[in-house]
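My current task is to audit a protein record that another person submitted. Please read both lines and tell me whether the tokens look consistent with the sequence. Do not assume that whoever made the record got everything right. I have pasted the whole thing underneath without changing anything:

===
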Amino acid sequence: MGTAVAQVLAKLGHRVWLWDYNPETIVAIKKIGANEQFLPGIKLSKCIMPEASMMTAIENVQLVIIACSSPHVRMTMRHLEHCLDGRKVIVAHIAKGIEIKTNLTMHEVVQSELPAPLRKSVVTISGPSIAKELVAGVPTAVVAASQNKKAAEFVRDVFTSDTFRVATSADWKGVSMCGALKNIYA
């Protein structure tokens, strides 16, 4: 889903730095201009900059989007926290789930690994979305939920297009729980 989100943002004219925990994925994306592992058959926008270094990828950004599976969120956040070096950024995530050992939502996991001044600006992005449909421009609606209204509105403004709508909510806990439980109910 991370590559799909990058493609959506790039189509909107944003420059997107795409980092992956696996350096081989970045090398392959640079070489062929596609992420055949996670988004096969889709040529990526030239506005997407694959980057092997997380530190470099987040160097001059206002928004960091965590798009890994829930078992890897804490490890990714620990890596990110070391790269932030006092920077003020909004951290949004699209991970859904509840951490097994702690019973924390992904929103809470992200918050727990950030410096205190950034914790209230975490944004959960959740809703019915499928990677291939996002990049194909199929109409999609999601929610950006945060304790920080301005952070949620920033995410909304960055993503919103003719085919991608983002509502905002202060109910980050409810949105997080709905995302975590949706497959169980389905």
